[in-house]
Amino acid sequence: MSKTLTIDFVSDISCPWCAIGLQSLLQAVDALQGEVVPDLHFQPFELNPAMGPQGQDIGEHLHEKYGATPEQSRQTREAIVARGAALGFTFRMDQRSRIYNTFDAHRLLHWAEEEGRQLPLKQALFAAYFTEGENPGSHEVLVRLAGAVGLDADAAREVLASNRYAEAVRGREQFYQRQGIHAVPAVIINGRHLIQGGQPPEVFERALQQIATEM
User: Given 3.30.70.100, 3.20.20.70, 3.40.30.10, 3.40.50.300, which CATH number is that of 3-213?
Assistant: First the structure.
């Protein structure tokens, strides 16, 4: 008999390890069909909440925030590209030159959860940013992606033009920060079990299977 697991995936659109973690998690869930049914929810986390609307050059940002040298950044990019390729996700680093504000993307994801289309929108956002190099803070981009995954584009535009879900998103961000989440991805199973980082599929698979058998 399959067990339903509530999975809160705390992440940011601009986090490449979050895209890797999601691909790994979904592969693990596929491998456990018949054993595990995921009740998946994406929770907001902003790596750069103070980022302006025009964004910042990614090399400049990584140096300022982490002290990364160009060589260190190059090595990290190569590792990310390789991990993504192994999971079937394409990182095109030549297309991604800037870091952007993601708050409105999180507001739209909150709305998409109510509409039952949160997962496809999250996947579309990752692909738009990491594969196509688009700005996930652009309302034009967000509306187009919403329509592409089966959401009402006009309704999405209305959400973005308003301040809807801003308080709810900030409330969720603060909740997870109070729970000690200061790095992403953070994958929380049944509100109790934490898996941190962009782990390989087999790590998620073992954890999900063990948690399911203990229920």
Answer: 3.40.30.10
The CA-atom distances, in angstroms, between 215 and each of 31, 141, 195 are 19, 42, 18
- For residue range 42-65, list pLDDT tens digits in order: 999 999 999 998 899 988 988 888
Residue at 120: amino acid letter: P
Q: State the amino acid at position 170 in one-letter form.
A: R
| Count of other CB atoms within 10 angstroms of residue 155 | 14
Domain positions in the chain are 3-213
53: phi then psi, degrees, rounded to nearest 5: -65, -25
Distance CA 55, CA 97 (A): 10
- Report phi then psi at 68, rounded to 5: -70, 135
Which residues, in sequence order, are bridge partners of residue 41?
8
Q: How many CB atoms lie within 10 A of CB 37?
A: 14
